[in-house]
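Methods: example folding runs. The two proteins below were folded one after another, and each record is reproduced exactly as written to the output file, sequence line first and structure-token line second.
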Amino acid sequence: MGQVAFDTQEFVETLEKSGLKKEQAKAISIAVRKSHEVADVATKRDLEDVRKDMAARFEKVDTKIDSQIALVRKDLQLEMAGIRSEQKLIRWMLSALIAGMISLIIKAFFVVSV
């Protein structure tokens, strides 16, 4: 985390102008500065760094997701190609079965035996 900018000299002068003695103003200034040093405060720059880091991580995740989606699409296309082949075979077999049944019906009802 970054440091918070703190002008101790200006702070001491402000306190002196308000009527505090120089020693008291310095003591307060040191206490405030030390509190800023130990405070875990995020600066605008820290937040911007976090945003950039998150954007980079999301970009990597998006890339991984896109590659996984491409693999799934390929797998689905291969699977669908197999299913389409099986459908064509089943249609051909069904057509042959229907043609055989029609020929048997024609033979049974329309062909006169000699």
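Second run, written to the same file directly after the first:
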Amino acid sequence: MAELLVVRHAQASFGTDNYDRLSDLGHQQSEMAGAALREMGWVPDRLVTGSLTRQKETVASMGYDAIPEEHPGFNEYDFDDLLRVKFGGTIPDLVRGDRKTHFRTLRETLREWQAGGLEGASETWINFKTRLQDAQTFAVDTDKQRVLVVSSGGAIGQLVANCLNAPPEQMIALNLQVKNTAMTKFIFSSRAFFLHEFNTTPHFATPDAAKLLTYS
């Protein structure tokens, strides 16, 4: 059976005006992830990303020269848009800049979104789920045996939750567990799609490397 390896993008620029770009640490994490795959002898024969800059920069810094295919279904949900709807247009500075407040608000906002709230958001929860399913179908509609996708935490959480037939709430828990450059592997064929590994980070296994692990 073939393998679909979905890697979360490396550390982006949390707390800055442009989150959608890698930090210096993010580029280093990406290099480490690519080196770990090469050391394991895992060589992809198909590359796919969403359309986000942080995803494309991750796959480039992993050391792959080929231009990846692009499917916007692998993009993250637009959390800024959800927050603007939730707070009437202006996101509070504390939500944007304080990590504890940010992630508490993220949980609350996603629960509201999943329940059908936040009317006026650019994407509904149902549409998010549908485009992730479409992206999964795109990635596995191939005769390639090793497909590497670079995506984002919420998208990966939904792929796993859907594969396990888990309730929507579980997607939030999975989303918040996904580490930067963590690897989630699925096994697939024309008739099957199974979760094989979730959120692994072999490149952070040593004590020194573990200091470089991040979640945002």
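Comment on the second run: The longest helix spans residues 24-40.
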